[in-house]
Each structure stands twice: as C-alpha cells, then as structure tokens.
C-alpha cells in the first residue's frame, strides 16, 4: 500500500522515456485523478525532450509472446485500446504485422553498396530492375518450400534458406516508439501533467518518506528542489545513478532506418534474421528488420557493453556499427540495398543484472512514496502501457488491480 491515498498528491516521474511518459498518461486517465488534487511532473534530462533514448530508437514490436507474461497480458490489451481511443494508426503507426524467423545467406556486395543506394549483388542487374517496380520473378513452389509468405517480397527468395512464422496472425503488432512515447506525453500534458527539462541529481528522503527531488534545470543551469509525495524512478539504464542499489546495467545497441524507393512496396513484416556472410565462412549475423508504415524500414544489430555516458544526449554512435547493419540487411534485400539510409543511431536499454524483471512497484522499505519502473530490457515498448497502468493504480488506489505483478516487486531485486 502506498501512503496518502485520497489526499493531495505531488507526483514526480524521473525520466521521459516510454515508461515515464506512459505513466504520466495513465495517471491523468485514472478515474480519481483531478488536477486540483494531484500534480504530475515528468523530469527529462535530455535537452531535446522526451524519447531521446531507447524509447525513441527501438524497433517497436508489441507481441503477445513477449515476456513477462503477467505484464504482457495487460500491456497488449492496453496497446489495442490506446490505438483505438487515440487513432494510434495515424498517430504512432500502430498496426498488426507478420513476424518470422528468416535464415539464409547474404549476397556478396560491391563497394558501391556502402552508400546504401543501388549496389548489386551476385544477381545485380535483375535485382536492380525488380527493385524499381517492387515485384520480383517468383517461383511459388520454391517459396512454399522455404516457407516464405506470398507477400514477403522484399527479401531475396534465392538467398532464403527458410522462413518460419513466429506467431499466429493477430499476436504481433508494432508502434513507432518515438511517436508513441511523445504522444503519451502530449496526451498527459493535455490533462494537466507538466514536462520539465532537467537532470535529477538526488532523491530527498526524510523520516523514511520521500519528500522531493533535486534537479539541475537544462535552460538555466539552476539547481532546485521540488517537493513530492510520490517519486517514480523511470530513468531506464540511468536509474542506478538515482538509486545505486538498483541492479540495472546498460546495453548499447545500434540501429539504422532506411527509406526504400517510393515505387517499392514493403509488406508489413518483422524479421529476426540469421544471415550467413558470403565473404566470411562460418560467420553469421542476426539483424532484426522492421518494416514500418510510411515507407520506412528499421534495422538493429547486436548489443555491446560500451560505457554509459552521464546524459542521453552524449550517447556515442559508432558509424562502423551502423554501416555493418546497413550492409547486412542490404545483402539479403535488393529493395533495402537501393534505399536511402535516413538515421544512424545508438541507445542504451536497461537490463536487470540478476535476470528477470522488469522491476515494477513500490520500494516502501527504502522510503514511503518511492516507486520503481525500470529494467524492461528488450520489451519496454511492448510492456510500457501495462507498467504504467499498474503504477497508476498503485499510486491512486493503493494496490495494483490490473495484473498480479508480485514477481516484479522491487523487494525481489533490491
Ligand atoms: C535496438 C533496440 C531495439 C528495441 N526494440 C524493442 C521492441 O521492438 N519492442 C520492445 O518492446 N522494446 C524494444 N526495445 C527495448 C525498449 O527500447 C526499452 O525497454 C525501453 O525503451 C525502455 O524505456 P525506459 O523509459 O525505461 O528507458 P529510456 O527510453 O532510456 O528512458 C529513460 C529516460 O530517462 C532519462 N533520464 C535518465 N537519467 C535521468 C535523470 N537523472 N533525470 C531526468 N531524466 C533522466 C533519460 O534521458 C531517458 O530519456 C529495444 C531496445 C533497443 C536498444
């Protein structure tokens, strides 16, 4: 149970990623929320606003087969509801997608392919021509044998060894994570929440009760202590900088976005690939490739344990890692090879060192009024709505009603 049920609440959320922004949204939609009795402030360290970290640079998969199950169940339902209520299709690219595991070999590309435009592989002239009109000569029997869906035409059938669907239709969807996160924040602001640009430097705790946070404002550089009755730590990979006992570590991952030629149709699939590199015997790479609405394709590579900078704005992008992702996806898709690379980016996702997670709930044994919502690993986009709904119930009602999240309680991790 949290304190102050029914009395005036001053809620501070540390972190304007998908978890923080979704929590602000759910709090403002709670039946007992009223701006006259409850204030909600989201403090975000980036000078550029919300969703500058993993929440703006993730793939955006939302899946019934994600984990942990107890959080996925409520999150998937909430994603569907949010999309219906706020026109998520147009606002944040909500749609159902096919999702499969693709295995095959990459085509050997010439140096020209480094630009991401128009380079050929072993079947250069044929692929190039086909890429222009978005169709490809196809052998239905061969496609069926390999398991390739009829409309998945943006991977080279001849390089495909096998494709297998990972889930039944209707079990996998997607959002554009940056648009979803910023929409949650905007919708929360419409109902009275406030976004503050600054970096929290410390929690204020007195007599076992949270009393506020200290922050440095981005614009003025001024230090200030804001009073709070409830503080939610939702600072992703940076959460231990606020509460050092949190067992959260940071994993960096690179990604690129590619805009195929306008004449090309990219059917809505997300592929988990296993690509045998043509020039390096026995070596495989596994980029994830996400078709997105609006003629965009997102692809991400493996993680690394690079040093976490103090601020999300200082995350370093290794151009070579982005080049490699682009080359790998280009090696199996003429359509992506002929596209234009739009974004090259990197971000840190928060992982729970002890396994399991995320960590969601009240940390009253540290201080009354302190709540944790972090460690969402590779499923934070999927699980944000459920996390946020649970926290809103915990703070406004005193207990979580939408799910049984006992396994995720901070006392199991700290
Ligand atoms: C390559 C990649 C692909 C992914 N794909 C998917 C996917 O398809 N589906 C899925 O469900 N998940 C995916 N994820 C995981 C998902 O991105 C994360 O789990 C999620 O974004 C975590 O959200 P967050 O709000 O906890 O953290 P973040 O997005 O990192 O947000 C934390 C925020 O806190 C701010 N902050 C930090 N310290 C302070 C401070 N002291 N004061 C104020 N603000 C502070 C930061 O600036 C940051 O904006 C992917 C992750 C990666 C890296």
From TrEMBL:
SUPFAM superfamilies (UniProt xref): FAD/NAD(P)-binding domain
Top-level taxon in the UniProt lineage: Eukaryota
Pfam families: DAO
Region (Disordered), start-end ranges: 113-144
Any one annotated GO CC term: late endosome
InterPro entries the record matches: FAD-dep_OxRdtase, FAD/NAD-bd_sf
An example Gene Ontology biological process: retrograde transport, endosome to Golgi
Every FAD dependent oxidoreductase domain range: 11-394
Name of the protein: FAD dependent oxidoreductase domain-containing protein
């Amino acid at each position: 149970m949290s304190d102050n049920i029914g009395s005036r609440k001053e809620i501070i959320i540390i972190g304007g990623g998908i978890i923080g922004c979704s929590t602000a949204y759910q709090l403002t939609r709670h039946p007992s929320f009223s701006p006259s009795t409850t204030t909600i402030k989201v403090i975000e360290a980036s000078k550029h606003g919300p969703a500058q970290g993993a929440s703006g640079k993730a793939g955006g998969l939302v899946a019934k087969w994600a984990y942990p199950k107890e959080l996925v169940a409520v999150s998937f339902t909430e994603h569907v509801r949010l999309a219906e209520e706020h026109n998520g299709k147009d606002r944040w690219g909500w749609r159902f997608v096919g999702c499969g595991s693709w295995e095959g070999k990459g085509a050997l590309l010439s140096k020209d392919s480094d630009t991401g435009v128009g380079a050929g592989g072993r079947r250069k002239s044929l692929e190039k021509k086909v890429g222009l009109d978005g169709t490809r000569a196809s052998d239905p029997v061969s496609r069926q044998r390999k398991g390739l869906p009829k409309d998945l035409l943006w991977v080279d059938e001849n390089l495909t060894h096998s494709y297998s669907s990972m889930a039944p239709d209707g079990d996998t969807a997607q959002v554009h994570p940056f648009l979803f996160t910023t929409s949650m924040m905007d919708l929360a602001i419409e109902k009275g929440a406030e976004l503050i640009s600054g970096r929290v430097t410390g929690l204020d705790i007195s007599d076992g009760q949270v009393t506020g946070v200290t922050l440095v404002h981005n614009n003025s550089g001024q230090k200030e202590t804001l009073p709070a009755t409830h503080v939610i730590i939702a600072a992703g990979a940076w959460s231990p900088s606020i509460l050092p006992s949190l067992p959260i570590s940071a994993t960096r991952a690179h990604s690129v976005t590619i805009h195929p030629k306008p004449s090309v149709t990219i059917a809505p699939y997300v592929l988990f690939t296993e690509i045998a590199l043509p020039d390096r015997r026995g070596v495989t790479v596994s980029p994830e490739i996400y078709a997105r609405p609006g003629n965009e394709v997102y692809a991400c590579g493996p993680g690394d344990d690079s040093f976490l900078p103090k601020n999300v704005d200082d995350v370093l992008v290794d151009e070579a890692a982005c080049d490699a992702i682009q080359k790998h996806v280009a090696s199996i898709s003429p359509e992506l090879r002929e596209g234009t690379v739009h974004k090259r980016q990197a971000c840190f996702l928060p992982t729970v060192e002890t396994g399991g997670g995320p960590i969601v709930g009240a940390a009253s044994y540290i201080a009354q009024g302190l709540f944790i919502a972090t460690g969402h690993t590779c499923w934070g986009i999927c699980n944000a709505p459920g996390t946020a709904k649970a926290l809103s119930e915990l703070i406004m009602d005193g207990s979580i009603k939408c799910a049984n999240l006992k396994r995720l309680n901070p006392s199991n991790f700290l």
